[in-house]
Each structure stands twice: as C-alpha cells, then as structure tokens.
Amino acid sequence: MKKYNIGYMAGVYDLFHVGHLNMIKRAKDNCDYLIVGVLVDELVVHFKKKLPFIPFEERIEIVSSVKGVDEAVPVTFENAGKLDSWKLYHFDCQFSGSDYAEVPGWLYDKERLEEVGSTIEFFPYTESTSSTYIKKLICKEISGKKLFLFGAGRIGQKFLQFLRNSNEDDKWNVIGFLDNNPEKNMSLIDRTIVFQPDYLTSFPDLKSITVVITTKESDEIIRQLREMGIHNIIPYNEFSGYTPYLYR
To answer: Which of 19, 27, 185, 217 is most buried, by CB atoms within 10 Å?
Structure first.
C-alpha cells in the first residue's frame, strides 16, 4: 500500500526533460492516483514574464502521455493557489522539488494544507538538468538581432505574420510587441507577449535591440525610443530583409 491515495503536483513542464520525469516517478511511487497540473501560457507569462517555448496544448499532451500520470489538468488563475487546487482535487499530498522546501510561501501553504488533512512533500531536485539550463543552451544557438514590434494592433499582427511566413524569421529573434497601452501589458497576441516600452531598459546591451514601428504614427514613438537609448528603429513600411533603413 502506498503512502498516499491521491497525489498532486504542478509545473510548467516546458522542454520536458529527465528532471521532470524523475519527479513524476517519485510522486507516483508515493501515491495510488497522481494528478499533474500544467500551467496555461497566460499563467506562465504572469509568473515568469516570458512565454514557454512549448504551447500549453502540447505541454499537457506530453505530460498526460507520461507513464505514472493518471490525470493531467490545466492550472489557471482560478486554481493556481495550492488550497484552491486542493478544493478541486482533494489530494492527500502535493509533491514538489526540494528547491522550494525553504521558501516561506511554500511553508505557509503546507501549514494551511495540513489544516485540511493534506500536506506537501519535497523530493530531491535533479540539479544536472533543468528547463532553465536547456533554454540557456538554446538561446546561445539563436543568431540574429533581438526584434520588437512597437504597436500590437492590426499592422503589428500582420507584420508578425509577414516575418513568420518569410525567410526573414530566420534572421530575427522576435521577442515581443511593445505598446503604450497599459491594459495590453503582459497580454498574449498570437503567442507573442506585449510589453510596456520601459521593458527594453532591462536589457544590458541596447545596441542589440531593433524596434520595428508597426503603427502609422511614428514620430512620437521614435522620440520615445531615442530617449530610452534605442537607435535601431525601422518604420514597418521601410523594412527590408536585405538592407533595413535604420534611424541613427
């Protein structure tokens, strides 16, 4: 007889690797029925401020196919909290990696779960492999300039499709949209994040950034970008995959 009846664990499971597999194996060894929550794209953006490499629909399909997973469920804003998840699934234990064992928020959640007859158990973290490490290796292989599209409206979306449907997509690493509308901040458009312009200041090398202005009114945006130290600026109607005109 196993230690727990129903077990639960949650994660992004982006670029699924042996560390994820080891966690699932350990969890299944300790429970009869294992539920695995997979964070939706919007929640990943909210917590990590970046989009997962693999979209949610594919990540949850991968997890649901792993031996030992009895049920794969989406984790949304409504059930992201541990107690909220417990109210849905009434698990006897939530499993997690030992890298969270001393995090105050997790210890507080463990106490709250114990009040309702559940708990949290931490397993050793597989230090040799992580999604973060894999992503760093991938990013080293990405060539081309960092590209932002200023304007997340109709023109910007059409320009994004232009890049994706042409060989220009191989030359540019499209990071996301920029938009001055605060209501669009951290939203997703065609699996591309919309940032506020001041996000650019988080990059140590501003010379590596190119901004294509995908709005009809560009003069004020050019001034705004120049004040931030961005000088590689291309109006969308002057963009060329061969000799883009740069405002210096």
So the answer is: 27
